[in-house]
Recover the amino acids of this structure.
């Protein structure tokens, strides 16, 4: 991995090789080191892993979402909302344990933070004319993802002991 300089670049290499199983194991084992700013490449890697390795794909998407929120990259809010929706749909294959449920609940909180940022951007006096509709559209996508994830959490909690 030293050859690639980062965990994320090593994962990108493994996906292109393709060695998806190794890429997935590396993403899961070193999730805290993923670089969400490598947007185009990480998106492609997440798409490649989503079918057989939903947890690894979710972690890659979360790295991009977290980078978008941490760096307040307003231009990526729409992409982050789309990634959150993808995470919510992948969660059906991932939410199996209490830890998975906690991660899904964290994702729901992140969705709310992203929605609030979109709402603030749409209401801002410095938002260029016409861009407020862009933020309102992103906000509606985020609300859809929140609803989908809430239903998933409700279903995953239905079989739990009180």
């Amino acid at each position: 991995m030293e050859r690639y300089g980062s965990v994320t670049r090593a994962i990108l290499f493994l996906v292109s090789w393709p060695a998806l199983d190794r890429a997935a194991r590396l993403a899961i084992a070193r999730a805290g080191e993923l670089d969400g700013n490598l947007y185009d490449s990480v998106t492609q890697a997440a798409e490649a892993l989503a079918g057989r390795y939903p947890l690894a794909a979710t972690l890659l998407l979360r790295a991009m979402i977290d980078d978008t929120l941490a760096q307040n990259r307003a231009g990526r809010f729409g992409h982050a909302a789309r990634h959150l929706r993808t995470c919510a749909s992948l969660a059906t294959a991932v939410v199996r344990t209490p830890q998975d449920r906690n991660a899904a609940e964290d994702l729901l909180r992140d969705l709310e933070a992203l929605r609030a940022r979109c709402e603030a951007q749409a209401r801002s006096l410095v938002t260029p004319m016409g861009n407020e509709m862009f933020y309102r559209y992103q906000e509606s996508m985020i609300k859809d993802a929140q609803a989908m994830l809430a239903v998933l959490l409700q279903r995953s909690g239905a079989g739990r002991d009180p």
